[in-house]
Every structure is written in C-alpha cells, then in structure tokens.
Write a structure and sequence with these properties.
It is built from 27 helices and 16 strands. It has 632 residues and is α/β, with parallel strands linked by helices. The strands form 4 sheets. Strands 9-8-7-10-11-12-15 form a 7-stranded mixed sheet, sandwiched between helices. Strands 2-4-3-5-6 form a 5-stranded parallel sheet, with helices on both faces. The longest helix has 21 residues, at 346-366. It starts with 14 loop residues before the first helix and ends with a strand. It binds NADPH dihydro-nicotinamide-adenine-dinucleotide phosphate, pyruvic acid and magnesium ion (MG). Pyruvic acid binds at residues 181, 235, 324, 346-347, 488, 513, 532-533. A divalent metal cation binds at residues 323-324, 347.
Length: 632
C-alpha cells in the first residue's frame, strides 16, 4: 500500500490516518529504513517516546527555544527556506492536496507541482497566497447569513490551514464575529445539523478507563494548549452538551491567529457526560450521548482520569484551559487542579483580567482610582465573581488594604436580588465573600438606586436586563457611567450599544462581550468596545508556554491585565474606547505574553532557563506565521 522512502521519491502526507507514521517518517533522514520500519511498529503500538528535534536542517533551538514547539522547523522556516513535507510514498500528489496542514491549492509553485506529483491535479495557473486570500474574502462577503460564513471558514480550515489562519490574522476584526462570538454560539446550537467532519477530540463516558488511549489517537504529539469544555454553559446559551465542541475549536483558532500558538500544538476537547437539554435529547441529529448528565462521583472520576491522562501523555507544561463549564463544576475543577496542573479557567480568570484592564483604562476617562469607584454586577457566577475578586485584589495591592476591606466596594446581584449578609447561609461558596451588610434588595434597578455604583457590569447571561430605567439611573448618578454588558452571544447582551448610548444621552462608556456596530447618536458617532476574554487568553497562554510555566498564579492575571491596559493609546481614548483595536491583537498578545512570562520568572514558576533577556522580542519570535512555506 505504501513504502517508506526518503527525499526524491513520491511523498504525500496522510496525516489523519497515518499521523504516527508521519512522525516516524520525519525521522527518516537520521535513521535507516530498517530501523524506521521497526520504530513504525513500535509507534503504532503507541509506546514510542517523542522523536528528537533533528528531522530538518533548521536548528530547532533557534526556532522557539523549545517554547512554541516547532520540532520540524515547518513553521519557523522563512518563506525562502525550503522544508520537506515528509510523507508516505503513494502514487500521486492527490493526498497532498487533501492534507490541510500542507495543502496550498493553486499556490503550489511550478517546481512543487513537479516534485510532489501534482501535475494535472491542478489547473495550470499559480496563485499567490495573497490572491487566494483576496478571492476567499470576496467569496465570504457574498454570504448574507453569518452561519454560512462560519461553515465556509470551517471548510477552509479543514482544506488549507495556513490560508485559514492568514485570513483570520489579516482580517481579524471582520472574521472574529464569525469564528467566535456571536456566530460560534449559533454554530454550537446547530452543530448536529451542520456537522461534516469531526474537529477536536471527543471524550465521553464510553471512554472511561481508556482516556489515555483516546489521547493517543490524536495525530499530534507536541500539544501545548488544550481547551476543554463539558458543554454545560456554552456562552449564555446554556447546556449544549457535546455540541459545545464549537467553543474549544473556536478558542484554539484564536490561540493560533491572535496568540501565535502553532495549530498543531492546540487540542480542542469536549467531555461528553450527557446533556440535560431536553430539546437536544429529542433531536435526531444530536451528536452526543443521549442521556442526562452524569454528576457527582461519576463526573469527578471521568475528569480526574482526563486530567491524569493529559499530564501523563503531554507532561507538566501543557496548559489546560477550562471553558464554559457550569459554575457548579468550574470553581471546583479550578480549585482541585490548580496546584497539580497548569490550569486556567477562561471564564473566571481570563474575563477578570480583561475587565480589570478595561476598568484601569477607563479611569483615564472618568478619573479617580479603582478604590474610589463602586462596582455593581448583575450576575454572580463565574464571570461576575471572578472579575470582582481580581478587582478587589488589585485594589488591595494598590491601597495596601486587606482584601476583606476592598471587597466591600463591590456588590453583586444574582437571580434572587442583591447578595447581602442575610442570605449568607443559602449562598453558593463563591458568592459568600460578597455578602455585605445591607438590607435585602430584590432587583437591579433598586440595587442601582441603593448602591449608587459608578460601574455597572452585566454577567448574567440574560439579554435585555439593563433596561432603560437602569441605564437612566446610572446616568443620573454619574457624569460618565461605565457600563459593560459582557454576556454572550449578542442575543444575551444585557443591553445593546444603541440602547446604552441613547438612554445615557451619549454619556456612557460602553463595552460589550459580543461586538456591536458603531452607533450614531445626536449627530455623533459612538464606537463601542468589545470586553471579551479573547484579548487575554491567547497572549496569556503564549506567555505561559514561552516561559515553561508549570502553574498559574493570580499575579500573572494582573500582569496580563496591566499589559493590555498599557496598549490603549491616546488615540483610542479620544474615541471614548477602553480597549485597543483587535486589529493590533498580535502585538497586544506579544506584550501580554512578555508580561506574563516576566511574572512567571519573578515568581519562580518558569522552567525555561535561562530567561531570555528581551521577553517581548522573544515572544514575537515565537509566534506562528501562516505564510506558506516552500517545499523541496
Ligand atoms: N465577555 C466575556 O469575555 C465573557 C462573557 N461571559 C458571559 O457571561 C455570562 C455569564 O457567564 P457565567 O458567569 O459563566 O455564568 P454563571 O452561570 O456562572 O453565572 C450567571 C449568573 O447570572 C445570574 N443570573 C441569571 N439570570 C439572572 C437574572 N435574570 N437576574 C439576575 N441575575 C441573573 C445567576 O444567578 P443565580 O446564581 O442566582 O442563578 C448567576 O449568578 C454568559 O452569557 C457568558 O457568555 C462569560 C465569560 C467571558
Ligand atoms: C467569551 C466567553 O468565554 C464566554 O462568553 O463564555
Ligand atoms: Mg467562555
């Protein structure tokens, strides 16, 4: 069926089915064929250690210092540097065209068409990557329905990975709402119907006892970031079960496009323990386990096995990002694994870091220090209490006051009203620190009137909850009320940008979790910002990876937040914005990564030694570029 051969022969990748083989074939230069074949047998048994970094001419040490790994030099090679697409020999280049990691479509050069047996398999014209990008953007813009754009982009990702990332990097503001919120939410809701080819790794209750084996089925070995969900709280859309896979897939595409992590180092995972979503359980196209959610010991054991298998398979330094778990599991998972694994909960910690950055930046517009402001949240779950805690921590660092004191400047409302001390006994543990002395207040409007906040933050997952009365009350209390409607997707936003600007008579400093178009009010154009953890997690993860950090510390979140706030320029402030434009995100991510890595070294949590002198330059040099490489 195939033979193992070196350069000069017919080489095609069969990455999906033959990933293990490919790993070995990449070693073909340093090993003889006989040795290779015996290693192949070992590899298919799954007991072979990771290959040495010696398969290409590029010095792997000069790549990313083992940081964002590039063992074979494929990504680190410059555009002029030739790389070898090590393959299994087959009769034609047909399979190469179907390998998303190496396919270039019409951009294969004449020389590549000759050396990789592509003649006749492509029309005669050669396009540049830029021309392909132009054509695809034109095609994408023809679709009126966002979900069609999403599907077209997913198809591209599976057809030509570098072109997909080139599009995303160069058109981030236009495409972010497609691969990410809000469209990814709709994609998850309809995942069963739009499902074509599986993406990511599915680990269900059926795999209990075999999770390590399942991880070994994934074609890549050098995993550096895992985003994992159990699908129970997908954005503000609730329990979408196994269909939550769209979220880890989307988040990881941002890790690559925004943060420069190599696509092959990213692993999306969905843990399927069932769903309590009746509609999905009855949906004949539902792709997950058709049972109600496992809970308690059964759930905890599956997660424990997963966490253990990840560490065993990928080592201590793989970052595991928990995403969109329901809060009854999210806080516990973070608490249980933060001392034994490199874990990060994006909804609790990433969101906190991004919101704190926005608030610090907003102080330049409204004046005062953090401690001089009063904060009111609608929503006291992961995002709400996570943000509240980081604000209190930063205030405490700035004022030297104890956390218990600084927390008193922050109030939260949940579905039962203001969180106050009389409710303490019945509160979930993560709400208890926020149960301050106050009489019971049952709704948000009354809470605004009673607490008189300068900052109002929505993290309830319920759309339309910042009513006209609420925004007007904020405006009557403040010259420039800060209003953040964080809930995703757009349908769940606590208010729209138009509502915020109209009801506040243009005085609100507004940002939302999902993007809104600029709004014209009273002859002036208002540009809303996007307060979304996508500003933080890609750079944060890059910082952890390049420093070889083995644990996440709260001070690293503060470091990320500080770096983001520093990226807001005067020009941005002049537009009334508190976040920099997403079009600068690669630069922003490099700054965040450098600050996070610096903190990791300072805290003694970094293992990559010696510390690079210029962490910013180092971070930049580690970032994946989606420009095509030239093949021998
Ligand atoms: N912009 C961003 O970067 C991010 C945005 N988010 C968004 O934030 C939202 C919440 O996420 P998360 O915190 O994880 O969710 P949780 O389920 O952990 O928390 C939701 C909170 O909202 C409260 N709530 C629900 N309905 C109401 C209501 N009608 N009035 C008042 N409070 C209400 C709940 O109250 P109770 O406890 O009483 O049930 C709970 O405290 C989601 O829409 C998510 O998409 C999340 C992370 C990042
Ligand atoms: C943005 C995000 O992580 C969320 O809405 O859950
Ligand atoms: Mg999330």
């Amino acid at each position: 069926m195939f033979s193992l051969t070196g350069s000069g022969s017919r080489r095609i990748f069969l990455r999906e089915q033959w990933s293990s083989v490919v790993v070995l074939l990449r070693l073909v230069r340093s090993k003889g064929k006989g040795e290779m074949e015996s290693m192949l047998k070992e590899d298919l048994r799954g007991d072979r250690p990771a290959p040495p970094a010696a398969a290409v001419d590029i010095d792997p040490k000069s790549t990313v210092g083992g940081g964002v790994e590039d063992v074979y030099g494929e990504d680190r090679a410059t555009e002029d540097h030739l790389v070898t697409p090590w393959t299994i020999s087959v009769a034609s280049g047909y399979t190469l065209l179907r390998d998303p990691h190496h396919n270039k479509g019409l951009a294969f050069t004449e020389k590549e068409r000759d050396s990789h047996y592509l003649r006749g398999l492509l029309p005669p014209i050669c396009f540049t990557q830029e021309l392909q990008e132009k054509k695809l953007m034109h095609n994408l813009r023809q679709y009126q329905i966002p979900l069609q754009r999403y599907m077209a982009l997913m198809d591209l990702q599976e057809r030509n990975e570098r072109l997909f990332y080139k599009l995303l990097v160069d058109n981030v503001e236009e495409l972010l709402p497609v691969v990410y919120t809000p469209t990814v939410g709709e994609a998850c809701q309809k995942y069963g119907s739009i499902f074509r080819r599986p993406q990511g790794l599915y680990i269900s209750l059926k795999e209990k006892g075999k999770i390590l084996e399942v991880l070994k089925n994934w074609p890549e070995r050098s995993i550096q970031v895992i985003v994992v969900t159990d699908g129970e709280r997908i954005l503000g859309l609730g329990d979408l079960g196994c269909q939550g896979m769209g979220i880890p897939v989307g988040k990881l595409s941002l890790y690559t496009a925004l943060g420069g992590l190599r696509p092959s180092a990213c692993l999306p995972v969905t843990i399927d323990v069932g769903t309590n979503n009746e509609k999905l359980l009855k949906d004949e196209f539902y792709i997950g386990l058709r049972q109600r959610r496992a809970t308690g010991q059964e759930y905890a054991e599956l997660l424990k096995e997963f966490m253990g298998a990840v560490k065993q398979n990928y080592g201590e330094k793989v970052l595991i990002q928990f995403e969109d778990f329901a809060n009854h599991n999210a806080f516990e998972l973070l608490a249980n694994y933060r001392t034994s694994h490199l874990v990060f909960n994006d909804d609790i910690q990433g969101t906190a870091s991004v919101v704190l950055a926005g608030l610090v930046a907003a102080l330049k517009l409204v004046g005062g220090t953090l401690a001089e402001h009063t904060f009111l949240f609608l929503g006291a779950g992961e995002a709400g209490t996570g943000i509240a805690e980081l604000i209190a921590l930063e205030m405490s660092k700035q004022t030297k006051a104890p956390l218990e004191e600084t927390r008193k400047k922050i109030w939260l409302v949940d579905s039962k009203g203001l969180i106050v001390s009389s409710r303490r006994e019945s509160l979930q543990h993560f709400k208890k620190p926020w149960a301050h002395e106050h009489e019971h207040v049952k709704n948000l409007l009354d809470a605004v009137k009673a607490i008189k906040p300068t900052v109002l933050i929505g993290s309830s997952g319920v759309g339309g909850t910042f009513t006209k009365e609420v925004v007007e009350a904020m405006t009557s209390l403040n010259e420039k009320p800060i209003i953040l409607a964080l809930s995703n997707p757009t349908s769940q936003s606590e208010c729209t940008a138009e509502e915020a600007y109209t009801w506040s008579k243009g005085r609100a400093i507004f940002a939302s979790g999902s993007p809104f178009d600029p709004v014209e009010y009273s002859g002036k154009l208002y540009v809303p910002g996007q307060a979304n953890n996508a500003y933080i997690f890609p750079g944060f993860g890059l910082g952890l990876v390049i420093s070889g950090a083995i644990r996440v510390h709260d001070d690293m979140l503060l470091a990320a937040s500080e770096a983001l706030a520093q990226q807001v320029t005067q020009e941005t402030f002049n537009k009334g914005l508190i976040y920099p434009p997403f079009s600068n995100i690669r630069k922003i991510s490099a700054h965040i990564a450098a600050n996070v890595a610096a903190k990791a070294y300072e805290l003694g949590a970094a293992t990559r030694l010696p510390r690079p002198e210029n962490l910013l330059k180092y971070a930049e040099s580690c970032m994946y570029s989606p420009v095509y490489r030239s093949y021998r």
